[in-house]
Amino acid sequence: MTRRNESGFSLVTVLMMMVVLVSLALAGMNSSLVQERMAGNARDRNIALQAAEAALRDAEADIEANLSVASPFVSACTSGLCLPPSMTSSNPTSQPLWQTVDWSASAAKSRAYGSVTGATALPGVSAPPRYIVELLPVLPPVSGQSANLGNSDDGTAQAFRISVRATGLRTSTVVILQSTYVKR
After folding, report:
1. Would you say residue 140 has pLDDT above 80?
2. Is residue 37 part of a domain?
3. Structural contact between residues 90 and 164, judged by C-beta atoms closer than 8 angstroms
4. Can you say whether residue 79 is alpha, beta or left, with left for phi > 0 and alpha for psi between -120 and 50 degrees?
5. Per the domain annotation, does 3 fall within a domain?
6. pTM above 0.90?
7. Strand-pair partners of 179
8. Which SS3 state, helix, strand or coil, does residue 138 take?
9. Hey, which of 19, 111, 119, 154 has its CA 20 to 30 A from 66?
């Protein structure tokens, strides 16, 4: 039997198939990593959103138990009790207060979750949520309606704007929520 010279065509073909398979495996792995990051980010955002919702409820409990028109609401936002920029006598503006307030714990311009109500700390967040309460102008009853929204004798209601800033597992994940609460 004579041996023929082999050109090595099948070796090149197998090597090319291996390169294609490795490329497909790397692409699949990269896709899995991206999807895992997306799921982690969605989970972190959900945690921050739940913390912000809990802080809204905490602020509502604070308003109901501790705050009234006679509380020390000032334009400097001391202890998280604020007058909206549109209600200040000097230089009224319409810029939202939540964009200008210092949310850091050291600034004492906002209230920490549970600091007034005694609510237990939230697990899984990088920092406790913080909130500010703005005193809004008195709301008269709607024309033609006799419903009393507030607890005053003249049919007016007192509204408060609550702005909350919460973080998730990472400090870079931030959720800001806002609601209006009418004290009954």
Report:
1. no
2. yes
3. no
4. left
5. no
6. no
7. 162
8. coil
9. 154
d(CA 130, CA 135): 17
Please check whether residue 161 lies inside any domain of the structure: yes
- From residue 151, alpha-carbon distances to 64, 82, 143 in Å are 12, 22, 18
The pLDDT of residue 106: 80
Cβ contacts of 139 within 8 Å, gap of 6 or more: 149, 150, 156, 157, 158, 159, 182
Integer Cα distance of 112 and 105 in angstroms: 8
| Number of domains into which the chain is organized | 1
Angle of CA points 130, 69, 115, to nearest 5°: 25
Question: What range does the domain containing 64 cover?
Answer: 9-183
Cα dihedral across residues 114, 119, 120, 121: positive or negative: negative
Which of 118, 113, 117 lies closest to 132 in space, CA to CA?
Answer: 113
Q: Is the residue at 1 inside a domain?
A: no
**What is the average pLDDT value for the chain, to the nearest integer?**
86
Amino acid at 78: T
